[in-house]
Amino acid sequence: MSGSVQVTQKLQHQRHQQQQQHHYESSCHLSTKSSVSRQSFSTYKTSSRRLQTTVKTEKGKEVVKLSPLPKRAKRTYLAMDTDKEVIGYVVPVFRASHDVVRGLAEAQEEDVTEEGINYVAMRNLFVREAREAMEVRVEKRTRTTHIRESAERMELGRTMEEWAEFRKKMNPDSLTHRPEFIVKPRGQTVWEGKTVKLHCTVAGWPKPKIAWYKNNVLIDAKAHPEKYAIESNYNMHSLEIKNCDFIDTAQYHVSALNVKGEVSSVATIVVKRFQEGKEAGPLDPKPHGFCAEHGVTFETTIIDKFEVAFGHEGETLSLGCTVIVHPVVKKYQPEVVWYRNSVPLKPSKWVHTHWSGERATVTLVHLNKEDEGMYTLRVNTKSGFDTYSAYVFVQDADVEVEGVPVAPLDVRCYDANKDYVVVTWKQPAVEGNSSILGYYIDRCEVGTHHWAQCNDAPVKYARFPVTGLVEGRSYIFRVRALNKEGVSRPSRVSEAVVAVDPSDRARLRAGPSAPFTGMIKFTEEDSTAGVVPGEPCDVVVTEATKSYVVLAWKPPVQRGHEGVMYYIEKCISGTDIWQRVNTGMPVKSPRFALFDLAEGKSYSFRVRCCNSAGVGEASVPTGDITVGDKLDLPSAPGIPVATRNTDTSVVVFWGASQVKHLVGYYIEYTVVGTDKWIPCNNKPVKQTRFVCHGLTTGTNCVFRVKAVNAAGYSQSSSNSDAVVVQAAISIPGKPTGVSLVEAVKDYMVLAWTAPANTGGADIRGYFVDYRTVKGDVVGKWHEMNHKALTTTSYKAENLKENVFYQFQVRAMNMAGVSKASLASAALECKEWTITVAGAPVGLHVLEVRDTSVVILWEPPAFNGRTPVNGYYLDVKKASAGEEGWKAAHEKANKMKYMKVTGLKAGTSYVFRVRAQNLAGVGKPSAVLGPILAQTHPGNKEIYVDIDDDGVISMIFECSDMKEGSEFVWSKNYQTITDTSRLTIITEKGKSRAIFNSPSLEDLGIFSCVVTNTDGISSSYTLTEEGLKRLLDISHDHKFPVIPFKSEMAMELLEKGRVRFWTQVEKCTSACQVEYVFNDLIITGGQKYTLNFDKSTGIIEMFMDSLEVTDEGTFTFNLVDGKAKGTTSLVLIGDEFRELQKKSEFQRAEWVRKQGPHFVEYLGFTVTQECNVLLKCKIGNVRPETEIIWSKDSIEIAEDDDDAQKIERKDGDLTFNIGKWVIKQEKPKEKRKKPTAEDVPPPPRPKISKADAGIYGVILKDDRGKDKSTFNLTDAGYQAVMNELFRVIANSSAEITVISTEHGIILSSMVTYYNDELRVGWLHKDAKIATSERVKSGVTGEQLWLKINEPTEKDKGKYTMDIFDGKDGVKRVFDLTGKAWEEAFEEFQRLKAAAIAERNRARVVGGLPDVVAIQEGKSLNLTGNVWGEPVPEVSWTKNDRELVSDERYKLKFEHGKFASITITAVTTADSGKYALLVKNKYGKEAGEFTVSVYNPEEEENKEEKKG
Known about the structure:
Shape: elongated
Radius of gyration: 57 Å
Strand content: 35-45%
Distance between the termini: 188 Å
Structural class: mainly beta
Helix content: 10-25%
Oligomer: single chain
Largest sheet: 6 strands, antiparallel
Number of strands: 106
């Protein structure tokens, strides 16, 4: 029986095959235990018939075995084992699929080369998935069945191949994904002329296309190869900018795009330029019109403009605009200048300006009222200029004390002299609860932080002369206002001013006379020195107020080169008595302010000059001056007139005030029904028209104005008529985006977008006009509707089929009908046959913020063949072209709203929406926008509130409510109509949505819109996690807990008292505390002292001591209304016993200190002189207090030697262990007793083992006794020695080097040396071993190292390591270089000198000084001689050399002994003899005298004498 082994696979039905992979690869497996290798699965095809045999396997199963293959057999599908035996048929599954895979590999060969690893990964993936999808089994089939099924299988294979091709076209590969940046480009700052390179790495499949942009303009590197170079290698991309110029400063975008989407990243390049030449001023004239230099006419457009801004003092505020200059010219940038009140702003620590090449910004750091005003941006080009202005308001900082005035402003300094300056300021807008009484002026010297008040009494006049300055120093000033409630905050400080003579200031401003040099003046001796100065001239009164009078004069002509000073004298009118004002100190400046003058009296003044020679004559007196204010208060301004302007502003006009030296006007307003006046401006304005911004929409306001000058405020003007704050009504703007949303044979459905500007009133309706279009010929406009439409869509009926029409729309409000919109495109009236959905309609925006907006829309009127199943939202910057559209999301959004995030603040965007159905994505809707991404100043956010009863509610507030404005709440942007879940309560500008029963049903996005406003809206997303958190807080509010700042704690006080305390964060006056110990309530009494300070929240309980019964738990229970709180402290076991011991110790310490006691117990110290002192500090000592020292329990008596070592100074006791005591013995005879100072102290160690012992000090009197001991044995003795070693080691001097005839000595001096001190020497960081050549030791206080016969090996770094009780102190000497050369040279010199001295020829002995010999006797003398080499020897007599002969026998034997022999001496032999020795090292003479006498002659002489 013939049979074969066939491999089959289960196939699913075709309707389910869409879920399988596109390609398959065949594989086969056998279910037998036969050993079959992969190589044996070769397939052959044959048509011959062979014998069949049946064999049994190891398990006994029958297997059909075929005869061996013929040699020339054709290929067949046979499976063979390792012995080449056929074991069955092998049929590959889906043979056609193999071809598909092979063809796919060949077709994508180029892609493999390009994409590499990505392609291989994708192919392996679908091969693996195909293999896993197959189910393989082995079964027997007859040959007939096999052939029939093979044919069916081949047909099925072709069908599957066609289906795979269809699936490949219909479904994208699952491996594809949108691009993403692995490494983003990074911004850089470079100098002009350099090259910069931006890098990024991008991943994505298919491989994304990369494009680079400069300021949103595509960079074409091929068109400008000299400037740009773009490279892309292995997903790494770069942009190189060559030879950077200033105009290359820009934002560079890199965009990556593939079929799945697009991503982009941005980096900023800043090119810095060196300053060259003087820049033109901001007010220099500029040419207009055509620019011949560049051949173009520049057009400037300012967008993204800043609006009216509000800030508080101390904050930081930035203003900015985007500037577009067209056309763009290389290496050209416009000039951007900022102004405040028409005055150019200069960069300072308060003002920072920046121009990026696209956006101009000014940042005001630490706002102050001086920063308030009209800010103007002016862009100057070579074709003209463009400007934009808006006002900045700065509100006063909060006052520290209610009712005090706010700070003055605009402090300036004028007329500065050597010791005098005039300070002026402007009065603040708010005086507080009472009128301003005056001002205090403070000064501070630059470089210090000390402020000194200049005036004792407040000055009312806003101008004050400050005197008493130090010449040459710089000062800054500030002013504070005073009323009955207190003193205001200080103003912003003035600019620094130098107290110098005006002529010196002018010379200093002029700078040095030549670059890089100073100005040096040479003057000869002044011939007029010592001359009394003349009289000043032109003495005048420059200022006269109630508080002071200011005099000014000119210096005298006659004054020499010596400086002069001035005395001022005053005289009351009608008298001749002149009184000197500044008697104590003359002034240096030709200005002087006189205070303390009687108001209403008249005075005259004169001035005298003085110098070292004396006081000069008085000047001509001034006329009579009456003390009083010369400047009158301003008159009240005219009645103000207020008119509507915008939703938040009102224009106010008034009549000018009649006043001299007007500073400006302050405008105030109040809401009708209140009596609180609020300032509109905090910096006075001089115009009689002002726009008051920041008002609340819908409020009824009244305005008034007051004028101000240096004398003070005027009376307020009359109140204006009440005016409602709301925009002035005008006709609305044009509708936009007229488009076709559906077309049939005889009608078309139109849609448009409502105008952004409603004109201050609701849009009441729309009117649609139409006209026919035939080719280039258009007809007249006709009205389609005579009744206004209330929607933004319209069904235009009764139209003709296949005719083209154009449409336009006009809006209407109560002020009238707007201009017509732009005409739509020519639209043909014919039935749509398209399958995709139409364009969505009704796009509008909510919740506009700096970085996000919410877009809402309505579904299209025409759905196409199938219903709409999703939407796509596109976004782009308003300034970008059509290529700038980007998808805001990847997957279709099924909602009719979407929040777009990631926007750039201050940038305008436009939006559009496309609908999707099963047929595809339809056309985009009409464009919505531009929408400025900027949070509306009055727009607040929804916040959640939980009241004391735990009720959860959402609150939204609006300050811009108008007539007819309402709060509309929505959930998921669908208006809420079901009140079962929420209860909405609205009061004026506040709406509250209360959750009736919060649960998971309430999850979602809750939003609130205020109608008839400028898009005031907000939303709040309630998530499951957020709901859980709110429910927890609600529970806490229902069952409140008193919060503790700190839990109960314990501390020990003096006398061993114990304090238990805690502190609550807040409590009311009704809060009660229950003190509990071990469940028993404690009351105040003898044992417990209880205290509760409700102002601070501190709860205390005091106990005098802790007893055994006090072990347990202490608890404070608090009750404050509904709120409760508990805190406890457990004191048991070891912790309690340890605390009890500490308490007892503290009490014992207190008792001890009631009598004489030790403040510091006995210890030790080692002085810098290495004296070892035992010391202690005592306290509460009386004269009768006994102080007893002892050693080893033996009292040191007053007559003991150790008693002289004890010293007491105030409360310090010391015992000098090492002090040497001279024992004075009692003299036997009465004589003056020598003092200890007369006897030099013998050397004695500072401390030794003999000093070891236990030292003690006892203090006692009738109040008590205290004792302290110090154990100076073992560890104590070693600690003292270690400290002594430390002092010795640190006293060591730097190592010095000394050369001797034997070698080199390195030494260091110490204050003191102890035999136990360890000193080590190291050479090149290795320890030196002691030898005969190298030795170390100590001589006195000198530590030394001797190096005998030094060699080159002895060079190097030497270290002396002195033990200091811990690690050691090292002193290092580098014996190399010059130090070695000098030391070694000196050693050699001394060594040579020593050798010479040692080997010099000399007479070492044997010769007498005098020889007396009797005449006739023989004289024999021998002298010992030394010298190396052996010296030469000679003898002399009376300085004449002797020669050896018969009379004088001279000998020199053995090189050591020289002898002279004279036989039978005579008196002629008497004389002075000398033995002379000499060698190359020197010579020496041994002299002696020989005296020869005759006895007979001597006797005769005696006789003659007799």
